[in-house]
Amino acid sequence: MFTEETNKSAPPGSASKDELLTWLMEEYGDMVLRLAFTYLKQRQLAEDISQEVFISCYHHLDRFENRASYKTWIYRITVNKCKDMLRSWTYKNITYKDMLVSLLKSGSKSTEAQLVDREEREAIFEQVLNLPVKFREVMILFYYEELSIQEIAEMLNLNTNTIKTRLHRGRQALQLKMEGVGIHGTV
C-alpha cells in the first residue's frame, strides 16, 4: 500500500490496477462526493454515485489514454453519472432529505464568529444549489473545486466562452437570490 509520504499529485509509477484505484479513491474521493452532492443534494445518492464512479474507473482504467489528467477524467465521469441520475425516474420521485453540513472549515476565530461564518457559507451554498444545473455546475467546479475555466470546459465538453458566460450569469442569479433572502456580501 501507500504511505503518507506518497506523492499525492501523481499516481504511483508501476502500480497494479488495484493500487491505482486505491490511489484514485484517496486522492479524489472527497471531491467526487462533494461534486455529486452539489448535483443531487442528497448525501446517500452522492455516496452511491461516488461508488459508481470508482467502479467505472476500475473497469475502464486500461482504456485511460492520458489525454487528460485523472482529475478531469474522474470529474467528467462524476458529472455524467450525476446528469444520468437527474434524468432518471427514480431521482425525479425522491424527496430531498439531507441538509448541507459546512464544506469549509473555519480558522482560529471565536466560536461565535465561526458559527456566523458557517451559517453564512451554508446559506450561500444553499442558494448555489438552487441555481439551474448549467449555472450550478460551473459555479461549484470553479469556486468550490477550484478548477480553471479551461479544465471545466474540457470536462463539460463546452467552449471556454460558454463557461465564462455561465459563470457570469450564475453570479448574477446568485446575487439576486442572496438579496431576495437577505444575505449581503460579495459574490
UniProtKB/TrEMBL annotation:
<dbReference type="InterPro" id="IPR013249">
    <property type="entry name" value="RNA_pol_sigma70_r4_t2"/>
</dbReference>
<dbReference type="InterPro" id="IPR013324">
    <property type="entry name" value="RNA_pol_sigma_r3/r4-like"/>
</dbReference>
<feature type="domain" description="RNA polymerase sigma-70 region 2">
    <location>
        <begin position="24"/>
        <end position="88"/>
    </location>
</feature>
<dbReference type="InterPro" id="IPR039425">
    <property type="entry name" value="RNA_pol_sigma-70-like"/>
</dbReference>
<feature type="domain" description="RNA polymerase sigma factor 70 region 4 type 2">
    <location>
        <begin position="122"/>
        <end position="174"/>
    </location>
</feature>
<protein>
    <submittedName>
        <fullName>Sigma-70 family RNA polymerase sigma factor</fullName>
    </submittedName>
</protein>
<keyword id="KW-0731">Sigma factor</keyword>
<keyword id="KW-0804">Transcription</keyword>
<dbReference type="Pfam" id="PF08281">
    <property type="entry name" value="Sigma70_r4_2"/>
</dbReference>
<dbReference type="InterPro" id="IPR007627">
    <property type="entry name" value="RNA_pol_sigma70_r2"/>
</dbReference>
<keyword id="KW-0805">Transcription regulation</keyword>
<comment type="similarity">
    <text>Belongs to the sigma-70 factor family. ECF subfamily.</text>
</comment>
<dbReference type="Pfam" id="PF04542">
    <property type="entry name" value="Sigma70_r2"/>
</dbReference>
<dbReference type="InterPro" id="IPR036388">
    <property type="entry name" value="WH-like_DNA-bd_sf"/>
</dbReference>
<dbReference type="InterPro" id="IPR013325">
    <property type="entry name" value="RNA_pol_sigma_r2"/>
</dbReference>
<dbReference type="InterPro" id="IPR014284">
    <property type="entry name" value="RNA_pol_sigma-70_dom"/>
</dbReference>
